[in-house]
Queue: 2 jobs
Job 1
Amino acid sequence: MSEAREYDVVVVGSGGGAMTGAFLAQKAGLSTAVVEKTSLLGGTSAYSGGACWLPGSAVQQRAGIADSTESAREYLRAILVEPDETRIEAFLAHAPELVAELEADPALDFEWLPFPEYYDAPGRVSFGRSIQPTNVKRGDLPPEVGGLVRPPVERDRLGEGGRNTLSGGQALIARLLDGFLREGGTVLTELPVTGFVLDGDRVGGVAAMTPEGPVEVRARRGVLLAAGGFEGNAALREQHGVPGDVAWTMAPAGTNTGEPIEAAAAIGAATDYRGVGWFCPGLEQPDGGGSFTLGFRSGLMVDQRGQRYANECLPYDRFGREMAAAPDRIPSWFVFDSREGGRLPAIAMPEGDPAAHLEAGTWVRADSLAELAGLIGVPPEVLSSTVERFNGFCASGVDEDFGRGADEYDTFFAGGEGPNKALTPCDQAPFYAARFVLSDLGTKGGLVTDEHGRVVRPDGTPIAGLYAAGNSAASVFGAVYPGPGAPLGSAMVFASLAVHDLRA
Ligand SMILES: Cc1cc2nc3c(=O)[nH]c(=O)nc-3n(C[C@H](O)[C@H](O)[C@H](O)COP(=O)(O)OP(=O)(O)OC[C@H]3O[C@@H](n4cnc5c(N)ncnc54)[C@H](O)[C@@H]3O)c2cc1C
């Protein structure tokens, strides 16, 4: 790379926040470079469902959804713990503006996504207020766009599948990249950022590493750090008390290891790690990985004593936090019967081949519950009575222990035929148990930012030229996961606010 790499704006990373910022900056006439560590763009965002929690926009209005900024404020007030009101107000005010700004471009188009929010609290919108980018056909994109977007998770991890229509997170990244390249933006891949170029106490660019040695990419106006969290870094996870494991995170291999966050902290940035992570139950894979799993249709989760400990249909982050709450829940065993022909009665991304699971021992199968208990090392009488009690709840329609099926989220994915759609008995041999670990969609603690996305010092003053969004920043929602699309929605809003500040 030549010495002369200099842009108005340098964006580090290429997830939903990064690409939103890069596209809007370039479109506003600021020369912008996306600097990405790997050879592909999109990170975990490309694996995602592409749901964006962006309340109060014209998209919800078009769909006739009873959403508004006011009800979103009411909802957040009810569920967040000691929020930064200034940032929350900035998020609420800018979310609809951002959607309007994006939809003004022919590359971007959104639709409402029915997907319930994660808390039964005032201001909640029935079936959710999330929006998603519309699908886009690979053939309708310039070839360089399709070639740069990270494949879906099942293809990236297991080599399965492949899509000619990009949906969800792939569509989001592809659409933003399409607009960015059309406006003349620059993409620099395989360039891991290791630190910052300082002009006095101002950030004037980034330092990165190539096989040929260190290089600088200078930024006349500023650097937007949107390089994910530190979910892929075992030492940082331990240091900041994030439960789970590097092997179980959903971030693409070799991506989010937190060096840019550390580098910002080293030049004086304040950090806040209390949000820890966006958690989920993870179906353990034969290779030791964990697959984000949601939408259990039948079956029950038991701890290492053979007992249930939570409503299995809880929103995944809340279930993940239940898993993390006691040591004998990681691993847990998900016990299910044969009513779905030996497939997991849930959405696992990816599920993997049942035969490979059985061979590896990540799943076991037995003709009776007592035999199954022996295979997973729990007392047979405990497992049998746990399942018997659960089946009784299925018959009555009331989960007296954990209230499964009482909330609209619980029944959204489940289509059971009994008195409670989320309660289907586990009674058809042979029986299965699948090993579950605590997975995450990324960490959510990091750099403290203000309402403009500026990275601040512990005294609250901004570090000139440095902005952060996405999982590189401490989440505006703290430890809470409000609803589908909260990671992407907040990343996109604060990246956009950063660009507004950079333009000023
Ligand atoms: C299966 C799945 C479904 C999901 N669905 C949704 C959903 O529908 N809605 C939602 O909001 N969230 C969803 N999530 C969560 C969401 O995808 C992530 O939390 C979010 O996308 C993280 O965004 P990010 O920009 O912080 O990180 P990423 O999207 O992971 O992007 C970070 C990028 O930075 C790059 N990078 C890292 N370090 C460096 C460095 N030193 N130098 C240069 N580049 C670097 C990485 O290689 C990566 O490409 C889902 C997650 C999964 C796994």
Job 2
Amino acid sequence: MDLFDSKDTLIEEANKAYNQGNPVLTDPEFDLLAETGLKVDTRNFRTKVAHPFPMGSLSKIKDAESLSKWAKGATGTIIGPKVDGAAVRLSYRDGRLVQVATRGDGVTGNDITGNARNCVVSETLPYPLTLEIRCEAVIRKCHADKFEKNLRNVVSGMLGAKDPRPELALVEFLAIEIVSEDPLTLAAKRDLLREICMKELTVPSVIYDQAPSFDEIEELFNSWKQNFPWAIDGVVVEKFHDLHAMVEKETELLPKHKVAVKFGNEAAVTVIEEIDWKLGQHGKLTPVLQIRPVEIDGTTVSKVSASNYALLKSAGLGVGAEVGVVKSGDIIPYVKEVHTPSQEGLDIPSCPSCDTQATLSSTGIDALCSNPECEGATLVRLQRQFDLFGIDFISGSTIEALVAAGHDSLEKIFSLSESDIAALDGFGRKSAHYIVTSLHKIEVTEAKVIKSAFLKGIGERKGTALLNHYGNLDTMIATIKEQGMTSIEGFGPIQTDLLNTQIGLIETQLQLYRSLGIKVAPHTAPAKDAKTVCCTGSCPGKSRKELKEVLAEMGFVMASSVTKDCCLLLCDDPEGNSSKLTKARKLGIEIKSYEDFFENQ
Ligand SMILES: [Zn+2]
């Protein structure tokens, strides 16, 4: 059973998983799969639509030499930022918006008109024109902290999702060009675009008599990158001979008169020498690619991690594959390009702990060790439990030693006395004392109890949302068991289903903790009429976390950004000019210094 021989299947599965809030690929991995293929939009519930004019994509240029070769003979160029968004077309008939579609494979795309109407979009044009506007669907960089994923992937995920999400209101369509049945000159097209689209939502461009040098283009790129409110990932260069000549209708999927110029992030080329598998929670085996060591950014990189078995299978990442690896700054190195896929193929791995051959998960994405007696899996499970408790004195190797001595469950470990532990190899009186004392001091929140059931996608944050809804854990368990879970904001059908069927696991964890004498701190839900405040700058004597706690005790909820729901902005300097202060002034929100605020409370 090998589900992922084609990369489209994995992209489809990954999109679905992302829309359900359980991403299975990292952003660079998603890009790696999407890079070479045009068939990213494979969500089958969308209606496919044929494009009236093909929507091409651009070939890439990465160095000065290729640029001058390509630009040779051009008497003029138009240069603009390459916006890092999702390519779409907005089709207007007699000045009314009739259809919005994704690029898809350039010939057919997906009809996303419904979701697009929830975005920032003009339903009408100032004139009764019939034409299409090519756009990049984008979210401003200032909203990046609201999402865990690269904004382009967020946008395509939401536009393609079955149900509209509230965050679609943040999506804007940046106009790039007009395509129409009527012949127009390049100059007329540019003028018309600026006339019918909001200036702010039109991608800027500069006209040059000749092609500028690679360095000049890089300078433009850097200045746009810094000042543009949306992410850009290169520069688009279009060459022309006469701005006032009629433009031929575009029919090519890879137009020759336009290229994308890209900078930096050069990948180091190397070869995959071996693949190791790491055993994780639920018996999941995660691949670690051993590569021929390469020097990147002054450090030697010899291994690269990857999310799952299916990614390797779909991208041809096996022993012998020639790949481009990227690492910049603090990010973990990852495979950016596959130059030559592996000829050896990829076998289903064996568990590094018990050597049993793995099985594939029902989705085909993960390789799993399904041996119930696997000692490695037991260890991973216990280590996750102890990570959750956060005890300094009980390290990974302590747990390993306890499991090796046969104490392989929480119950067994909690029943050990100081002398039991001191009698084990490698433990002294002192460490035995610390361990037993720490075990008896463990205290967890109710949200952590929910997390400890390790239901996919249900962590502490989701746990807190559930507790806020139900009040406390006992009520939550009883209510879900008796009546089933009602729809709660932020929980999709998959997670609701998961909780309805697996609520027993959370109950078991709660009972286990109580029987072990672990103190479970009752949940305190924020008051229903809590006021929202936003904070900027540092508060004297309080960390951000302490500040949040103090405010919560006073009945305030701390928001991460200034919105009209805020009643107050706290800051270190009320005369300052930070973006939060500027926005608060614009919205007429009261501004107070931390000093004033805490003095008068
Ligand atoms: Zn195993």
